[in-house]
């Protein structure tokens, strides 16, 4: 429990530093985006490569991933049901809302939370792979069909394999599966570059919080609140039930699965919404509110389940 509290405090402090940097205008305009892109294209791939190359694949690809998958699927379906019964939203908006309800921010927030709260990033890696290989192509295909009336098979297939995080993760899995032990001089640069990922993500996230204006005119408030509630409360609860009561996973994996499920909606959803002009305000506000709500939820889960010991 002490480890989880300490880790959560570290995350909060670094996010606050990022917010102050933006508030005091220490860095020029656009610096947060540059920092975020550096973490995404450079730091995160190096970090995930080193984690997976040294990982026990029986732990990475375990029933834990089943719990994460079922939790995400049920959460997305809950929003679809709410949209049909309560909001009567357009198809594209419903797709965005469903994605915001079940697609977790396993990168920008997930990796730091895994490091400081769960105690290991190996539980986030399979979720990242699943989302990039399965969830993202489905969402993009549905949005592509909605926006254009047709689907570009090439864009759907090439999108994931152009992602540097996915490429680095797959290479790491191959190294671990073959049992190859890379020498320290080879791994050291990856360790060093990977070390910038987590602080860069948290600082960039803190910087992005400045100037956010939720619930602007035209925002679908009820849909935003429902998506936020599903993402931060229903999804971790469902995942806990699957992990603990159905799959009977070890306590550490139950805690890890529940914490990962409580992560906020991924920033990717906002990017997809803008790209296809579907549910833009829903995506923006759902990502913001789920991010703010997820922090205390993760803290409560950490206190109850003690994921980091």
From TrEMBL:
The places in or outside the cell where this protein is found are:
Cell membrane
Q: Hey, what's the signal peptide range on this chain?
A: none
| A Pfam family assignment | Mem_trans
Its Gene Ontology biological processes? Answer: transmembrane transport
* The organism's place on the tree of life at top rank: Bacteria
Any single Gene Ontology cellular-component annotation: plasma membrane
* Keyword vocabulary terms for this entry: Cell membrane, Membrane, Transmembrane, Transmembrane helix, Transport
Does the record's keyword annotation contain Magnesium?
Answer: no
Q: Where are the transmembrane segments?
A: 6-22, 34-55, 61-82, 94-117, 123-143, 164-180, 192-211, 223-248, 254-274, 286-305
Q: What topology does it adopt in the membrane?
A: Multi-pass membrane protein
What protein is this chain from? AEC family transporter
Protein's organism? Schumannella luteola
